[in-house]
Amino acid sequence: MSGTVAPVPLQASALDTALAPFYWILEVWSGLMTELYNATGIEILQYAFMHRALLVGLCIGVMAPLIGTFLVHRQLALIGDALAHTAFAGVAVGLFLNATIDFGVTPYLTAVVVAMISALFIELISEVTDAYNDVSMAIVLSTGFALGTTLISINAGGLAVGVDQYLFGNLSTVTSQSAALLLVLFAIIVAVVGITRNQLLYVTFDQTAAEVSGLPVKWYNRVVVMLTAMVVVGAMQIMGVILVAAMLVVPVAGASQVSRSFNESILVSIVLAEIAVLAGIGISYYAGTIAGGVIVLTAVAIYVAAVVLGKLQTAFGEEETPEMGSIDMGEARPSDD
């Protein structure tokens, strides 16, 4: 009938209601981009999907190096890759539930849940079995990818078609709902790091001293891996599962070549990540290529330039660039209040 409206799944409706403030932010942002297009005539700014992709990219450029700086100094650079594969399993779970029982939720939401649970399992395996972190990461990575491929193979005809955008990322498939979820994750990550910065620093650079001082080290370790899971799922929209871990590591590695303190390293890594994201999105749009690959290649090129700059600084007699693990412990020690 002409007056019939298709029912909206209860879960999706409740989610959209919760995301209403973030939809408003997206509308404001889109309006600003439209005004900028009218003023400059830049072609990339005339499309609504590019407005969302640019906002998602800007958020990724902040939260990925923000968390990645802690990971690199903890020698956990590969945890992003492990959680990306478990996020793929989460996507497969969402697609499978939607295909079989009409669950009605975005796969990105199930990816967040599965990735955060997997992050906790990485810590749990290390704590219970005394295995090295790379062992627990390898176990979780293999299990996550195996689960994802199994679920896809069970219903291959209905799921395989939609998997590519999650494996490789796609600017045009960034929906308003997925962009709003990214904004939620971004707000949580920035807020948690802002509140627990000193404690995370202390645990990162001297776990023994942190334990002696009474800090719940295991709890803060879990906070870091769960925040990493959030970053991975958020960045997966345009980076894809295969390349998402690069944004956690490459900008941080580049910043370490020219930075002389932890705070400076975070700021420089964010700047480098934003340059890589914006340049990568622009190049991929005009060249018709996959954005994730171009972003990573741009980030690697910036890393190489940072290495050369760091060597030149040393050659011309400036203070030698500190190693990745070096830091003024005064930054890391939490305040007494």
TrEMBL record:
<feature type="transmembrane region" description="Helical">
    <location>
        <begin position="223"/>
        <end position="253"/>
    </location>
</feature>
<dbReference type="GO" id="GO:0055085">
    <property type="term" value="P:transmembrane transport"/>
</dbReference>
<dbReference type="InterPro" id="IPR001626">
    <property type="entry name" value="ABC_TroCD"/>
</dbReference>
<feature type="transmembrane region" description="Helical">
    <location>
        <begin position="145"/>
        <end position="168"/>
    </location>
</feature>
<protein>
    <submittedName>
        <fullName>ABC-type Mn2+/Zn2+ transport system, permease component</fullName>
    </submittedName>
</protein>
<feature type="transmembrane region" description="Helical">
    <location>
        <begin position="78"/>
        <end position="98"/>
    </location>
</feature>
<dbReference type="Pfam" id="PF00950">
    <property type="entry name" value="ABC-3"/>
</dbReference>
<keyword id="KW-1133">Transmembrane helix</keyword>
<feature type="transmembrane region" description="Helical">
    <location>
        <begin position="180"/>
        <end position="203"/>
    </location>
</feature>
<dbReference type="GO" id="GO:0043190">
    <property type="term" value="C:ATP-binding cassette (ABC) transporter complex"/>
</dbReference>
<dbReference type="InterPro" id="IPR037294">
    <property type="entry name" value="ABC_BtuC-like"/>
</dbReference>
<feature type="transmembrane region" description="Helical">
    <location>
        <begin position="53"/>
        <end position="72"/>
    </location>
</feature>
<comment type="similarity">
    <text>Belongs to the ABC-3 integral membrane protein family.</text>
</comment>
<keyword id="KW-0812">Transmembrane</keyword>
<feature type="transmembrane region" description="Helical">
    <location>
        <begin position="290"/>
        <end position="309"/>
    </location>
</feature>
<keyword id="KW-0472">Membrane</keyword>
<feature type="transmembrane region" description="Helical">
    <location>
        <begin position="265"/>
        <end position="284"/>
    </location>
</feature>
<feature type="transmembrane region" description="Helical">
    <location>
        <begin position="105"/>
        <end position="125"/>
    </location>
</feature>
